[in-house]
Amino acid sequence: MSASAPPAAPTDPKRYIDGWEKKWVDNNIHWDQGKSHGALVKFLNDDTETAKAGIPKGGWAFVPGCGQPLVGTALPAEKRKARLRGPPSTANNQGYDVDLFARHGLDTIGLDVAPTGVVAANKWLESQPPRNARALVQQGDFFAYKPDELFDLIYDYTFLCALPPAMRKDWARRMAELSKDAPSTRLVTLMYPLNGDPNIGPPFRLTEEEYHELLGDEWEITWERAIPEDEKRKGPPGDEKLAVWKRK
Ligand SMILES: C[S@@+](CC[C@H](N)C(=O)[O-])C[C@H]1O[C@@H](n2cnc3c(N)ncnc32)[C@H](O)[C@@H]1O
């Protein structure tokens, strides 16, 4: 690989799923922030803003692409496997968003294609204090997933930008297929990264216009907020915006 080539990443639509599991197995999970995004936490704790946005207080929520790494830095495979057998990590995990929505009253299902991430996420979720709503991560491919119930709310953060750009229209189609066809249904997108080189990723650059092109037939924005500099994620730079879409 030349110095200017993008980092090795699962970008081939036919083979990229194996690439994600390899990232998990290698513990190459540089995207992990160690917690839910602060802007999402702040929003969900604000009853006035969530009422304006029409966030449901019950029903089913869905978080695609939410597996759990064991540690935030690379570990050799044998140590990583040992950690999987041992007590769950409490410091670095990615059942966070599943846990967060469940603590706001929604029965929440996470989905990840990488089995390693799913096992660890469920261990972590089980280790957390009791919640009133269900929280579970299932293993599966977002593009083939058949839920028992259609969802009242879907949350996308660093999932769309992780997909090969050629799959974006399929992502938008699936968002409509997986959600209830009702005006009370919400899609929460933490848009990221809203700048950068469109050819290098993941994360692959997105634009607000592209979100509207992808979602505009089925969804319209009811609430949005650009994320200020001091609240942005760590790691690869990119502007961010939290947006809530209602099903038309
Ligand atoms: C960049 S990570 C983002 C994780 C999490 N959303 C976060 O904010 O930290 C993308 C995740 O999507 C998962 N993934 C990729 N393609 C998928 C697919 N088709 N179905 C389900 N999960 C997928 C990967 O295994 C990986 O865990």
Structure write-up:
There is one protein chain. By secondary structure, the protein is an alpha/beta fold. The protein has a single domain, classed as Rossmann fold (3-Layer(aba) Sandwich). 29% of the residues lie in helices and 17% in strands. The protein has eight helices and seven strands. The protein has a seven-stranded mixed β-sheet, with helices on both faces. Helix 7 links the parallel strand 4 (153-157) and strand 5 (186-191). It is globular and about 40 Å long. The N and C termini lie far apart (46 Å). Residues 1-10 and 68-93 have low confidence and may be disordered. Bound molecules: S-adenosylmethionine (SAM). One of its GO terms (biological process) is methylation. GO terms for molecular function: S-adenosylmethionine-dependent methyltransferase activity. InterPro entries: SAM-dependent_MTases_sf, TPMT. It comes from Trichosporon asahii var. asahii (strain CBS 8904) (Yeast). This is Thiopurine S-methyltransferase.
Could you list some keywords that capture this structure?
248 residues; alpha/beta; Rossmann fold; 7-stranded mixed beta sheet; 7 strands; disordered N terminus; binds S-adenosylmethionine; S-adenosylmethionine-dependent methyltransferase activity; S-adenosyl-L-methionine
